[in-house]
Amino acid sequence: MANRKLVAVVIGASRGIGAEFVKQLHEDEYCVIATVRKSVDVHVQGASMVVDAVELESTESMTKAAQKVPEADLLIINASMGEDETMITTDSNRLNHYLDLNVTGTHRAIQAFLPALRARKTRKIVVLATYCGSFYHAIHEPIPTFNGPYAVSKAALHMLAVQYHKELSKEGFTVLPIDPGWVDTDMGRLAGDPIQEGGNPPEISIKGMLEAINSVKPDDEIRIIDYSGTVIPW
């Protein structure tokens, strides 16, 4: 890819937050590679290239996608699963599915795209975090929705980001776990009506996240922040 533009890869870009990331990154003059799960989602506004049939649960599909991207400055892993469930009604297969998608799937994506990120000097990795995965909030300021297996998997995702930051910072990488907040998406609406009850449209959330992504530096201490730049207690 003989491209001197900044190159961004967005995992999970067919709709909602991922699609808005692609749109705004394109407006910021990035060359954007978008991955989607289904071939029917091959058109993503603003994408320079769309790679379909990419599943977080599949090492093979993620590896094949990464082979099409020789270099990248920014990797955003947006794809995940989440519903309002409880631990006592979740069997082990369901919990493993959460962990395989939200945690191991993120690991698959990072491992697959490390060579592309190492080919450039910016070397930023962004994972979509959430206050639902904060021990502090779970204990001191619990919320009524998105607890259970979703919260467990997101807490594990936060630690995954910490470990990658520790291991890759010496190579000039920045790993940023960032919470998009309550956004008006299909998943966000499971908790109610975001627009009527204080949530944000995707364009507001992504604008704030991109400002934070652009400002973070490799020598910054890793922390979880939200789209407004506010630090979320762990």
Supply database-style keywords.
alpha/beta; Rossmann fold; seven-stranded parallel β-sheet; 6 helices; 7 strands; SDR_enzymes; SDR_fam
Written account of the structure:
It holds the Pfam family adh_short. One of its GO terms (molecular function) is oxidoreductase activity, acting on the CH-OH group of donors, NAD or NADP as acceptor. There is one protein chain. By secondary structure, the chain is α/β, with parallel strands linked by helices. It has a single domain (7-226), classed as NAD(P)-binding Rossmann-like Domain (Rossmann fold, 3-Layer(aba) Sandwich), CATH 3.40.50.720. It has 6 helices and 7 strands; from the N terminus they run E-H-E-E-H-E-H-E-H-H-E-H-E. The chain has helices spanning 16-27, 59-67, 92-118, 135-140, 148-168, 202-215; strands at 7-11, 31-35, 49-51, 74-77, 124-128, 174-179, 225-226. Helix 1 links the parallel strand 1 and strand 2 (31-35). Helix 1 (16-27) packs across helix 6 and helix 3 packs parallel to helix 5 (148-168). It starts with 6 loop residues before the first strand and ends in an 8-residue tail after the last strand. The model has no long low-confidence stretch (mean pLDDT 90).
